[in-house]
Amino acid sequence: MSTPLEQWVESVTRMTRPERIVWCDGSEQEAVRIQQQMVREGRTLPLNQETYPNCFLHRSDPSDVARTEKVTFICTRDREAAGPTNNWMAPSDAKKILGDLFRGSMKGRTMYVIPYILGPAASSQSRLGVELTDSAYVVANMRIMTRMGKVALDRLGNSSDFVPGLHSLGDLNPDRRYIAHFPEEKTIWSIGSGYGGNALLGKKCFALRIASWMAREQCWMAEHMLILGLESPSGKVTYMAAAFPSSCGKTNLAMMVSALENQGYRVWTVGDDIAWMQVGSDGYLRAISPEAGFFGVAPGTNEKTNSNVMTALRKNSIFTNTALTILNEPWWEGLDDDSPKGLVDWQGRAWTPSSGPAAHPNSRYTVPAHQTPSISPRWEDPAGVPISAFIFGGRRARLAPLVYEAKNWQHGVYVAATMASETTAAATGAVGVTRRDPMAMLPFCGYNMADYFRHWIEMGQRIPHPPRIFHVNWFRKGADGKFLWPGYGENVRVLKWILERIEDKAAATETPIGLVPTPDALTLDGLDVSSTTMEQLLNVDPSEWSKEHADIGKFFQEFGDRLPDEIRDEHARLGERLRRAAVVPK
Ligand code: GTP
Ligand code: SPV
Ligand code: MN
Question: Other C-beta atoms within 10 Å of 158: how many?
């Protein structure tokens, strides 16, 4: 009798017709074979093996360098289950359209079977997936990003309890590119892209879109959040999880070198992109990172902004769409002040200053988590870490203050549900356009977001010690168009205030939108930011917020009656507070 996994592999083989099938065991010998295969395929080169041992540079097809939200679908029987913010296709239509593309798509190619675990191998919060792919690059990345091979197969045994994900490069034609999710059968089909979130199916497809659906069914949470531990002078570590949209600072916050290290404040990394959380027996929300590696944005990364990852990525790492120096080392904008001579750009062409960025703005590194000096001793704790604060934030050049706290859980859910951020290069489409991105989950929620808000409200009632909820904005700009806040390691000053709020030690002023630090509540010593700039950073302008309030109202209309009353009530209350603030100016 064949196992459910073998049966599925057989049925996919009949459809895609690979020449060979390789079952991945996760061994070192296999890793070498995969690397050789990548290099043979012509898009991957070994880097300088002295300065970057066991590192590779991969150049994607130029049409395939970011997630493609337009061709990402949630395929539920009922259209309403996917909601107004997702692209929807009927499951039968999706199976037909994608099935036609998958038919024979692996002819002459190797199909890899990648069994993987999301989450620490020993954790009951972890889940199993299997990806079938014809891309050696995907295998090499999944090896870093998940616990894959024998460890996963052993845990699976004869069970059918895994999320099957089928992936083929197809012909890489953007017109024949689809990323389809079938949450009712917990299946993923992706064709026509070899890039990141489109192709590494354990990441956004499973760990967020499918997992968010599972989480609602099973009363837990799957969120687009980093997880960090903030150590305070007493040595106590307080864990926080933060949701920022793609390319808005999760990796950098999770790995920051604290500007207050000499005062005893230090940041430990648990995860940099995704958090799975359930209520623990102690009444706290317990978080694990489903991932075992970091797929991080390269541009802007340097010794000053993120020295932890700079140390980590000197070995066993894959660079995707960065530039290349004559020394055969990876390079990107913001790595150092001057671009070295003789650069080759991300497409392999000789680079000149007039030819635009040398590294693609969404170029990335894939690095094993354990190589990061800041990795938390508890990053693989099977019980997860207890979360004391949720932090939400986006890129807002105006409006949103540096930090504020929500009044309570329900208000916090409203704050998170009404987040907005300027779009970035992490997804195809215009960059810099402000859009609503509730909980940083707009592209990743596998079901109707109105139901997702309700799930959040209900989780608040289930968590005896719910995290306090905050909103931050590192990206506010002054009249000169420059960032007002220095960011990166200085963000620890905001984390410190958050910690002190949790411990009931820090002062705050009530504003219509929530609680903002009093002028002296933030630790600012050693920081070169003037008091006028701080005032600007913490300013809440009721008339600007009234416009925001109206815009939020329009966004909520899309959800019709499905929007929870609690959210509607919070919206009305904010409107009321803003009206009062406008009548009685301070
Ligand atoms: P994804 O991997 O796409 O989910 O992105 P992310 O949220 O992990 O963002 P990441 O930390 O990689 O940062 C994205 C970009 O924002 C990089 O170019 C960073 O240099 C920049 N950035 C991160 N933190 C800060 C900050 O505090 N201030 C400023 N000004 N820029 C920042
Ligand atoms: C993101 O876009 O949020 C990422 C990169 O983390 S990707 O894996 O492409 O989704
Ligand atoms: Mn991300």
Answer: 10
Q: Where are the domains of the chain?
A: 4-43+66-218, 223-292+376-549, 295-369
pLDDT range class, residue 1, cuts 50, 70, 90: confident
> Ligand 3 (ion): which residues have CB within 5 A?
246, 273
- Closest residue by CA, ligand 2 atom 1: 246
Q: Does domain 4-43+66-218 have CATH number 3.40.449.10?
A: yes
- pLDDT band (50, 70, 90) for residue 583: confident
Which of these is catalytic: 24, 75, 205, 248? Answer: 248
Evaluate: CB of 394 within 6 angstroms of ligand 1: no
Helical H segments across 503-564, by residue range:
531-538, 542-557
CB of 243 closer than 6 angstroms to any ligand 1 atom: no
Q: How far is CA 168 from CA 75, 281, 387, in A?
A: 19, 42, 38
Task: Please state, as a whole number, how many other Cβ atoms lie within 10 Å of the Cβ of residue 87.
Answer: 15
Predicted pLDDT at 282: 96
66 CA closest ligand 2 atom index: 9
Tokens (6 digits) for 442: 């707009």
24 is catalytic: no
Helix, strand, coil share of the chain (percent; to 5): 35, 25, 45
Q: What gap in Å lies between CA 536 and CA 476, rounded to an integer?
A: 9
Query: Taking 80 as the threshold, does the pLDDT of residue 257 lie above it?
Result: yes
Q: Do the beta carbons of residue 499 and residue 408 sit within 8 Å?
A: no
Write the class of the CATH domain 223-292+376-549: alpha beta
- For residues 496 and 482, give the distance between their C-alpha atoms in angstroms, rounded to a whole number: 25
Superfamily classification of domain 295-369: Phosphoenolpyruvate Carboxykinase, domain 2 (2.170.8.10)
What pLDDT, in 10s, does the model give residues 289-315?
A: 999 999 999 999 999 999 999 999 999
The reply to whether ligand 1 has any atom less than 6 angstroms from the CB of 366 is: no
User: Using one digit for the tens of pLDDT, what is the confidence trace for 473-498?
Assistant: 999 999 999 999 999 999 999 999 99
Q: What is the pTM of this model?
A: 0.98
Q: What pLDDT band is residue 81 in, cutting at 50, 70 and 90? A: very high
Q: C-alpha angle with apex 324: 319 to 326, nearest 5 degrees?
A: 140
Beta bridge partners of 293: 368
